[in-house]
Structures are given as structure tokens and as C-alpha cells.
């Protein structure tokens, strides 16, 4: 008999999780032509890398003067020719990425994924995603450098050498480093302790329920052969679901070992980008939006090791702590 409670598997769980994140997290979870994320190890979305490159047009503009300097002093071009060449090769590499990132990623994915994924899977969630995002962007820079070198050789009749190509790669790295920094600011900024204390004090009952779920879940559920959770105690499920619905959660879900939503989800329009993240003990706190803004949000995640493997319970809380979350 199927449970009538709200504890259920969402058929669009992956899509709902993806929608929660900004394009910055698409870089981490989806753009893995050179190092696929463990969560999506069999689903590489290579076209995303090309769209990211074109959407981050400002990074291309930022690269132009650096490449012009390289072309002037390393390739011995005049300033005017260096400026023109910089514009041309960046335009060509941006368009070529639409066609090259996918096949290059497909070729390298089966080679690099078995190496990178086991390595990053033993890291913390943040560090693993950071490494994979960095490797993805590094791969993009290498492809761009190869295209630009060929363009210089064919279009401008320049001679190439290891030193010249390396200098061009260094200039390209400036642009991808800028994308990496501004695209994932939460990697470089932490949620400060007073902010975490205020959050945990305000949502203490809800966080206590999350700890209860993470601790007790292995006693009341089992994994079937498909890797899905099978409810063994419907009375416990009913109690947990009722408490989740009554709490001030904007969202609450079981993230590992499988995705299950514990209450109906309301859409959140204009969801802000992640701006800071910290890990304290078994909890990971991510802030979305500006600190102190009533329009900000916090994702609070708790992890436990259990007989089911890693259990991860996550919730989304409103940053407007003067009242209940919408």
C-alpha cells in the first residue's frame, strides 16, 4: 500500500534542484566536459560550457587587452595589429566553442572522469565542486588557446612556438579565472559565525527536526536494489511529514542517499545567486543574496554517516528572520 503522506519522491527532483541554483552552480554540476561532477557522472552537459562562455561576454572583453599585450611583445606585432588580432581570435574562439567543447568533452570524458571523480568524491562537497569547476574552465582555456593559435597561424601568418602558445594560454587564463571568481563567489566568501548563530537560533526547532531525520532515518527506511528508499515505518513517516509541514521551512528535502521532498514546494521568483558558504561540523550553510536582506535565503544541510551510506538532509530558510518564511 502506498503512503498517502507528503514524503514522496519527486519525479522532477533533479530539475527542481537545478532550478534552485543560479547559472554559477550550473558550472559546477553540469559543465563537466573535462571533469564530470560525481552527482552527474553519467550525464555530461557539454553544451553548457559554450553557453557559459558566450553569456560571460565581459570575461572575453577582459581578456582582450591581455592578449593584445602578449601579441605585441611576444608575437612582435604592432599595437594596431595586436589589437585587431586580439579581437578576431577571441571572436573565433567564442564561436568555435559552440562546436568544439562538445566533441572534445565527449572524447576526454571517459578518460578523465574515472580519474577525477574518485579523487573529488573523497573531498568535501565544496572542495570537490571547486576542483571540478576549475578543471572544466582550465579545459576551456586550453581549447580556446588551440583555436586562437590556429587562427593566428592561418589568418595572420604568425609563427608559433611553445613559448608563444604558453603566453597565449596565460592570457586566456585571466578570463577563465575571472569567470571562476565571479561565477562562484560563495567559494571565496564565508558565512560568518555571528550570522550562523543568528540563523541557528531563529530556526532552532526546524534544525532540530533535521537532525532528528538524519539520525533516525536509517532505523525506519531501507534502500531497495534500485537505490530507492523504502519506507519501513509509516507512523514515523507521518510524524516527520507533519512536523515538516508545520515548520518554517521554505523547502526541506532528503538529498542523500536519494532525493525526497518532505513538503509541497512553492516557486520562489527571482531566486538570488549564492554569495557565501561555510561548513561548521556536520552542517553546511549557504547564503543566497545579500547579507541582511529580507530577500536573502539560507540553505542549511546536515550530513550523517549511516548504514545507508551518507544521509544528507537539506532545508531552505528565509533570510527574513523577522517573520515566518514564505
Portion of residues within helices: 40-55%
Taking the sheet with the most strands, its summary is:
6 strands, antiparallel
Order of helices and strands: HHHHHHHHHEEHEEEEEE
Query: What is the tally of beta strands?
Result: 8
What is the straight-line distance between the termini? 33 Å
Strand neighbour order, sheet with most strands: 4-3-8-7-6-5
Number of H/I helices: 10
What structural category characterises the helix and strand content?
alpha+beta
Note the topology.
Blueprint (H helix, E strand, L loop, with lengths): L12 H8 L2 H7 L17 H9 L1 H17 L5 H43 L3 H31 L6 H22 L9 H10 L1 H17 E3 L5 E3 L2 H13 L4 E6 L3 E2 L12 E7 L2 E6 L8 E10 L2 E10 L8
Antiparallel strand pairs: 1-2, 3-4, 3-8, 5-6, 6-7, 7-8
Helix pairs in contact: 3-5, 4-5, 4-7, 5-6, 6-7, 9-10
Supply the key terms.
326 residues; alpha+beta; two-stranded antiparallel ribbon; 8 strands; elongated; disordered N terminus; 14% strand
Model description:
The longest helix has 43 residues. This protein has ten helices and eight strands. Strands 4-3-8-7-6-5 form a six-stranded antiparallel β-sheet, covered by helices on one side. Strands 1-2 form a two-stranded antiparallel sheet. It has 326 residues and is α+β, with helices and mostly antiparallel strands. Helix 3 crosses helix 5 and helix 4 runs antiparallel to helix 7.
Amino acid at each position: 500500500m502506498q503512503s498517502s503522506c507528503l514524503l514522496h519522491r519527486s519525479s522532477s527532483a533533479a530539475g527542481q534542484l537545478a532550478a534552485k541554483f543560479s547559472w554559477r552552480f550550473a558550472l559546477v554540476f553540469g559543465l563537466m566536459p573535462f571533469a564530470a561532477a560525481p552527482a552527474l557522472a553519467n550525464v555530461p552537459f557539454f553544451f553548457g560550457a559554450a553557453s557559459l562562455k558566450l553569456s560571460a561576454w565581459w570575461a572575453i572583453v577582459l581578456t582582450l587587452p591581455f592578449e593584445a599585450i602578449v601579441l605585441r611583445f611576444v608575437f612582435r606585432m604592432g599595437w594596431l595589429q595586436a589589437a585587431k588580432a586580439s579581437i578576431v581570435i577571441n571572436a573565433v574562439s567564442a564561436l568555435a566553442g559552440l562546436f568544439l567543447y562538445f566533441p572534445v568533452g565527449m572524447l576526454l570524458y571517459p578518460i578523465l572522469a574515472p580519474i577525477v571523480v574518485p579523487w573529488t568524491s573523497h573531498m568535501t562537497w565544496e572542495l570537490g565542486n571547486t576542483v571540478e569547476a576549475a578543471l572544466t574552465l582550465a579545459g576551456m582555456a586550453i581549447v580556446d588557446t588551440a583555436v586562437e593559435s590556429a587562427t593566428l597561424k592561418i589568418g595572420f601568418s604568425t609563427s608559433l612556438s611553445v613559448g608563444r602558445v604558453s603566453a597565449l594560454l596565460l592570457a586566456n587564463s585571466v578570463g577563465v579565472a575571472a569567470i571562476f571568481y565571479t561565477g562562484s563567489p560563495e567559494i571565496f566568501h564565508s558565512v560568518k559565525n555571528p550570522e550562523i548563530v543568528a540563523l541557528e537560533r531563529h530556526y532552532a526547532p526546524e534544525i532540530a527536526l533535521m537532525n532528528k531525520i538524519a539520525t533516525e532515518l536509517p532505523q525506519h527506511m531501507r534502500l531497495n536494489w534500485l537505490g530507492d528508499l523504502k519506507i519501513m515505518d509509516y507512523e514515523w513517516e507521518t510524524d516527520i511529514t507533519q512536523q515538516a509541514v508545520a515548520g518554517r521551512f521554505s523547502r526541506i528535502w532528503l538529498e542523500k542517499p536519494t532525493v525526497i521532498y518532505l513538503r509541497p514546494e512553492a516557486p520562489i521568483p527571482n531566486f538570488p545567486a549564492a554569495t557565501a558558504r561555510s561548513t561548521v561540523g556536520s552542517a553546511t550553510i549557504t547564503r543566497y543574496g545579500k547579507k541582511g536582506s529580507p530577500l536573502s535565503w539560507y540553505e542549511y544541510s546536515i550530513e550523517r554517516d549511516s548504514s545507508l551510506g551518507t544521509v544528507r538532509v537539506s532545508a531552505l530558510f528565509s533570510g527574513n528572520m523577522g517573520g515566518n518564511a514564505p
